[in-house]
Amino acid sequence: MAFPKKKLQGLVAATITPMTEDGEINFSVIGQYVDYLVKEQGVKNIFGKSTLGMSLHVSSSVFRRYISPGYQLDQVIIHVGALSLKESQELAQHAAEIGADGIAVIAPFFLKPWTKDILINFLKEVAAAAPALPFYYYHIPALTGVKIRAEELLDGILDKIPTFQGLKFSDTDLLDFGQCVDQNRQQQFAFLFGVDEQLLSALVMGATGAVGSTYNYLGKKTNQMLEAFERKDFSLALNYQSCFLIYFSRLGFGVSQTKAIMTLVSGISMGPPRLPLQKASREFTDSAEAKLKSLDFLSFTDLKDGNLEAGS
């Protein structure tokens, strides 16, 4: 099946759902948020209702606000995974109705599918609810507990799901990821890597893009890493990736922490998460701000001659 949109590639920001202090979705800042991604970070694709966006904790109605002719986004992919098939199908239909560019689904994680065939049957029924939309599988076994290898799942998947377009691979098993790429080169799938701190390794394995939380505020620098990789300037690309590793080790990357860091870096209030997650503490926020300043991150300067002074 051919779709009019170009292949999803490059950086895709896993969206943060902005909240008010009383736990309601803060619709008023979404336009500002989208402008920041496009103009300041150079990220023009978004992945909505992601883990970072508290996928199962917020209404899908929020993503109608991301789909506007006034925005300069290239593609809006909406995650429609849920614990029940019926709910996933309804979310898929809603995504099609509001004009999403594609849908993605995780494996059900309470009553789990334990075999490839069972999981494929679930995904097939969800995809069929929005037959005009590209379909992506969101592989994140650490959270779903579904250990079916992505390489196994992709074997023959187009025979079952003709709208299948690619994989969001959020796992550290690079052997599995590499086999996905190697065994499906003729299919022209999108292979989107989801572990930000391992992106450079995934690029070597054949990743065509990446979906992640840090691209909300590290998009510009990650794009520069991608450009260095394309130029085969691997030393410079490694310097950028090393910065991420230092950054992660010092600050962490949970939902609460990411919301606080995004607020600091962008100046846009992302608010607290919803229960059972807790708001980042004042101690964390003060410490994060100090660390970001010590890295010159709040006024991050460009890398020159392959040196990463801010991350050293």
Automatic annotation (TrEMBL):
Cellular component aspect of the GO annotation: cytoplasm
Keywords: Carbohydrate metabolism, Cytoplasm, Lyase, Schiff base
UniProt-annotated binding residues for pyruvate: V211
Subunit comment: Homotetramer.
Localization terms from the record: Cytoplasm
Family: Belongs to the DapA family. NanA subfamily.
Organism field: Pongo abelii
Transmembrane parts of this sequence: none
GO MF annotations in UniProt: N-acetylneuraminate lyase activity
Active site residues per record: Y138 (proton donor/acceptor), K168 (schiff-base intermediate with substrate)
Reaction(s) this enzyme catalyzes, per UniProt: aceneuramate = aldehydo-N-acetyl-D-mannosamine + pyruvate
Pathway in which the depicted protein is active: Amino-sugar metabolism; N-acetylneuraminate degradation
Signal peptide: none
A Pfam cross-reference name: DHDPS
PANTHER family: DIHYDRODIPICOLINATE SYNTHASE (PTHR12128), N-ACETYLNEURAMINATE LYASE (PTHR12128:SF21)
Protein name, as recorded: N-acetylneuraminate lyase
EC number, as in UniProt: 4.1.3.3
